[in-house]
UniProtKB/TrEMBL annotation:
SMART domains in the cross-refs: HATPase_c, HisKA
Protein name: histidine kinase
EC number: 2.7.13.3
Histidine kinase domain mapped to chain residues: 62-281
Gene this chain is encoded by: luxQ_4
Coiled-coil annotated residue ranges, if any: 7-41
This protein's record includes keyword Transferase: yes
Length: 290
């Protein structure tokens, strides 16, 4: 038979075990309540963030549309004055009208970029892929930039794409990416050349590059050039202010097309901006290419 002392020890041990279990259960319940509260707080913050993002996108879209009408009016009046419809202008007046037209054009570009970014953030940008030849794309780009090449010291060169396959992607968005690259290169290349080329990148991708002999970008700024409203700190940059949105928009468009953007540059030795895209854009459209 067990002695009374042994039974008492076992009862004390059992009681102690039960207390430990109850304490652990209480701690677990408290922890669970904390986790539930944390998840609820995270859900609330996520909902607030979603609403804030939606409001920002709606605001940008609304303001972009509202800005277009007065900007178009300013540009139209500037063109009428430049064409001397109401009479001749003095050299100083002509210079000022040109300044107004240039500023209005830059503002119009910024509004377009803001609207595109708002659409991307709101998930309202649709991809419209189709087969096309890169020769046709380069020809269209060459025609777009011919009227704006005012600096005789800078040459814009399009290398003929050779041995490259047709692409199945959204050619308008690819054209927008390359236009941003070329515009940026021309702006910061006082003299020399801007060269556009396309090469194979592996078996299933094509790399489009825009290289220039311009001012270049210091390595510490490479990571930020594709951020929203990014401006590289340099004397030329201070004179030629851009929107700071073109490269950011290009990165997001490249992501939508299943690709990515890159920059290689050295201060004073030019830059190379590139976008690599798959030959076939990722699509869930059942009518897409086989």
């Amino acid at each position: 038979m067990n002695s009374p002392v042994a039974m008492t020890d076992r009862e004390d041990a059992l009681a102690a075990s039960r207390r430990e279990v109850e304490e652990l259960r209480a701690e677990l319940e408290e922890t669970n309540r904390g986790v539930v509260a944390l998840y609820a707080e995270l859900d609330a913050q996520a909902e607030q963030l979603r609403k804030a993002t939606e409001l920002k996108s709606r605001f940008l879209a609304y303001m972009s549309h509202e800005f277009r009408t007065p900007i178009s009016a300013i540009r139209s009046v500037a063109r009428l004055l430049s064409d001397r419809v109401d009479g001749p202008l003095t050299p100083e007046q002509s210079k000022q009208v040109g300044f107004v037209d240039t500023t209005a054009t830059e503002l119009a570009d910024m509004v377009d970029d803001l609207l595109d970014l708002a659409k991307i953030e709101a998930g309202r940008v649709e991809i419209s892929p189709a087969w096309f030849e890169m020769v046709d794309l380069f020809s269209a780009l060459r025609g777009m930039f011919r009227p704006v090449l005012h600096n005789p010291s800078t040459a814009l060169i399009f290398e003929e794409p050779e041995g490259l396959p047709k692409l199945y992607t959204d050619d308008r968005k690819l054209s927008q990416i390359l236009r941003n690259f070329v515009s940026n290169a021309l702006k910061f290349t006082p003299q020399g050349e801007v060269r556009v080329s396309a090469t194979r990148s592996g078996e299933h991708a094509v790399r489009f590059s825009v290289s220039d002999t311009g001012i270049g970008i210091a390595p510490e700024h490479h990571a930020a050039v594709f951020d929203d409203f990014s401006q590289v700190d340099s004397p030329v940059q201070k004179r030629l202010r851009g929107t700071g949105l073109g490269l950011s928009l290009s990165r997001q468009l490249a992501t939508l097309l299943g690709g990515h953007v890159e920059v290689a540059s050295e201060l004073g030795k030019g830059s190379v901006f590139s976008v690599t895209l798959p030959v076939l854009v990722p699509t869930q459209d059942p009518a897409g290419p086989e």
